[in-house]
Design goal:
The protein is mainly alpha-helical and 103 residues long. It is built from five helices and three strands.
């Protein structure tokens, strides 16, 4: 495992390159646990070096919008197939509750 200072520098570099990185992506890239990344992101957020969001980190608000757009567009064909399958099973005149998400 890299020392914390090197890990923090690597996290900042990755976030700069990608605009937004999830905790899981950072953990895999740095070969540490998600808990370690969460602590690192919290520390970097407290010093104002990046912004912490649920599930990841970015350098600013614009990056979160970009990440959200990417999630919405990711695997669009699969999401459409799921939507068609689900829609075909809903009876006419039924009520439907939908939770937040990109699928």
């Amino acid at each position: 495992m890299k020392p914390k200072i090197q890990r923090h520098e690597h996290i900042l570099t990755l976030v700069r390159e990608h605009n937004f990185m999830t905790v899981e992506e950072l953990a895999a890239n740095l070969d540490v646990t998600p808990q370690t990344i969460r602590r690192d992101v919290q520390e970097l957020s407290e010093t104002g070096q990046l912004k912490r969001y649920h599930g990841g980190a970015s350098l600013g608000d614009v990056s979160v919008v970009t990440a959200g757009q990417e999630r919405r567009n990711h695997q669009q064909q699969e999401k459409n197939a799921i939507a068609q399958l689900i829609a075909s099973t809903i009876p006419d005149n039924a009520s439907l509750f939908i939770s937040i998400g990109t699928t």
